[in-house]
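Task 17 of the worksheet. Students: predict the tertiary structure of the chain below and write it out as structure tokens. Keep your answer in the requested format; marks are given for formatting as well as content.
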Amino acid sequence: MTDGLEIVLFSGGRGSAEIAKALAKRTDVNLTLVVNAYDDGLSTGLIRRKFKGMLGPSDVRKNFSHILEIQGYEGQRLAKLLEYRIDSNPNELSSGQNPVVTNLRNFVDNMTQRSSRRASDDISRWLNLALEHLEITDSGENVHLLSDMAIGNLVLAGAFVASNFEFNTAIELCSDSFDIRHAKILNVTDGENLVLVGTKQDGQYFRDEASIVDKQSGAVIEKIYLLENYLTDQEELLLKDMTPNETTSFLEAKKRIPKLNPRVREVISSCHLIVYGPGTQHSSLFPSYMTDGLADCIATRLDVEKIFISNISADHDIQSETISSLLDKVSEYMNTGSSIPRPTLSYVSQCFLTTSKTSTRPWGLETVSSAGSEIGTHIGQWSSDGVKHDGGRVSNGLVSFARKLSGVSNSFEYASISIVIPVLNEVDRLPVVLEKLIIFDWLAYDLVPEFIVVDSGSSDGSSQILGNFPIAKGIHLPAGTGRGEAISQGVKESRGELVVTFPSDDEYDVVAIAEVATLLKNSHVPIVFGSRVGLCADTDKRLRSIYGGRNRTYYLSKWGGFTLSLLSGVLYKRWISDTLTSVKGFSREGVKNLSLNGLSADWDMQIIIDASRSELAIAEVPVSFRPRRFDEGKKITARDGLRAIWVLIKAVWCKS
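Model answer:
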């Protein structure tokens, strides 16, 4: 762990996996994953029954695996071992006359052979302890117990035995042995062995955690409870004759509230951000909140953001829930373990929701207050495929909030960038460009963008497209306005610390903006051009494809570009490979020294002239470029090129 943002993520087994991995990869984040271990499905339930006092190992095992997957080849092999499930026919591990257990041990030895000596020895030892405890021998005794068992569950069970039957100590042993470097993984409670049950509004009783996550009716889950033991068959029969109020009273009398793990208290007390991750709410997340002391610890952290991330699609347990009802349940279950009942705002300050609308920015920095609530609602494209949360996008949004309020925020400032997009009759390409700009992961480059689209009198409906993209600021100029005039107007109305021009013809990759902006920030050069020459393996061949056999236009473009570069170098001491690139970046200080004069290509030349007169450096960075052909609507002409040459010569002539 290094110095950086301390983030606590309440996690389930798989729902938060991509977010956890994305956060764990960041060098500016120290991540703690907090899980509850009250799962009891199938092999997990068997482990809990056979190892007295043990909690469910599955979610702990899954989180170990998630972090190991980002720790190189050795970690990936170890994760594969932990997740390997013995088939419903355990004899799959047999070969010839080899007994199942012998072959299982050989399999484990093979999978850990590239692990550290300590991890290999520990895993083998813990596996043996677990098999001995289950009374599984080479003779096949109780071998059926291995059916559908994840090997990681056996390893954690053996560590539980080795730790003198202390569940939290077993997690620590495994963390050390597996060399978990990118995150801490903690059980939320002190390790008390409780079981999870629940009720639905339609009267259904969930006898265990497995039934809570299974297929069920559409009625809302009324409440979940942690009990010391499952109800007996006789008690379940009694429930059937009880009224809803009687059922509630009966279960309330039996419920238990576990104590908070002291290590969880420590990390929450010093963290910069608290996150309630997505997952199966009623089994993976809500039970965590029903812990004595947790709510008080979270509520007193008035100096940090507390962010709730919703599921993208409804799981079985929340199919009739709304975001509002889920937030209400967060506070309800928090208050179960609290000494003072508090409103939801004490526990949640922000909510991340996902949308497929391209008009919504994906980085989630704008806040729209929910009706009747002070909780900020951030609607964004947190999913790149519509199925699961995109870890990179969500982690960037989370870090942005942590940085705003944390004591280390000054070390991680985001730069505001204004992207000026001139438009003239690009009705087909403009929406494509805007969508690419909106879904681009700007926070990955520490940028917060402002989009300014300047239409210079389009007649094809381009200006109307902006109505579908309300996030972009539109400026409408009269017909006949030149490209240079349009850009200048956009620059004048920009508010960003950095300003980058970008075309609306979809010839450049959006990442070119980030590359130009990065050089502006890191080198402190006031002007940066995105050069198409640097990444063109065969510029001559590319020019020929653009002009499609028009030799006169081809030669004018080829030698005209060379002439502009030569003149800018000889006359202005600015050696530039691509003077007419459409991606040009300026610092705010650089903008102040520009006259912003020019109608078309002469505008680009005026930048070089102004830079020379103000003694401003111009740097270049290579950018990728996909040019359209002349017959597809290429707008720059030979006349523009000749005008640019004349402007460069005239400025020196007039000065002399």
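Marker's comment: The chain has four domains: 40-182, 195-254, 262-410, 414-655. The longest strand covers residues 447-456.
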